[in-house]
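ok so i was messing around last nite and threw this chain in just to see what happens. nothing serious, just curious
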Amino acid sequence: MRRLDLYRRPALTALAATATLTLAACGGSTSAGTTTSEADAASCPGEVVDVVVSVSQWGEIVEQLGGDCANVTTVLASSAVDPHDYEPTTADIAAFSDADLAVLNGADYDHWAADAVATAGSDPAVVEAAEVVSIEEEAHAEGEEEHAEGEEGHGHGGVNPHLWYSPEYVQTVAAAVTEQLSELSPDAADHFAERAEAWESDLQPYLDELESLRSAAAGRSYAATESVFQYTAEAAGLTDATPEGYRDAASNETDPAPGDVAAFETALTDGEVDVLVYNSQTEGSVPEQLRAAAEAAGVPVVEVTESAPDGESSFVSWQLSQLQQLSNALGGGQ
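result:
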């Protein structure tokens, strides 16, 4: 188990109900588990593109989009490593230096990767998810002021960096990757277009499950030990009932006050929360305390993870299984 949290926040530990809350990191391997998916140059109608992806949440998506025409190296392919604290190796930096395209998350989630690109010297093309999302939102804002207000906070500056949990953002970033691949290898543009179409088809069950959740989620609420699942919960139409003090403390990398934890427990026991979202890739007594309170109150617990568990190779199956958990918790799967 590793520390996986919002804004480089360690797992939370409660010493006692009246004691000061302290921070405790999860144990785990320090191996990045770097992986490379090789292109099939003989089947590629154009030049093979060398791509380096910072984190696994985007790695499998880029592999699918690249198909036979992209060598894709994912630097942090193991769920045992916290992207915020990672120190790139010489080999990692060399990979970015040799890359034609770098795919990053941004929003300070993988700042080490942005630094590596900046010092690479070879000036690879870059798709940064947070930047792509920010640009799209600015475009919406030009003609849809109300929409822009509704999305406030989802660009740079205090943004929840777990962008892969937004179905809209995932599709936007995928389109940006396909565009860059096609620019780098024009003769393979049709291949990349075919790969994008196939990937969209593979994504459809996830989108369908999310759509079916909307009716079950109408008028329902959730609370979360971390904001990992926030974008998906919003897309499903759930109302966030996480006490504001707890949510703000978690977002600001600080310990929640004992009163904030107590307010969270009260919300669970008083029926203000329909489901608790719990990140199982963190450990600490506060999340565990809240989970125990939810279980005691009969509030269903949905386990999510910040990155795909080791051994789970498909982004779609990872996300789909979590949505199905949520559906069952809300009674939609019964």
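not much to say yet. The first strand starts at residue 11 and ends at 13.
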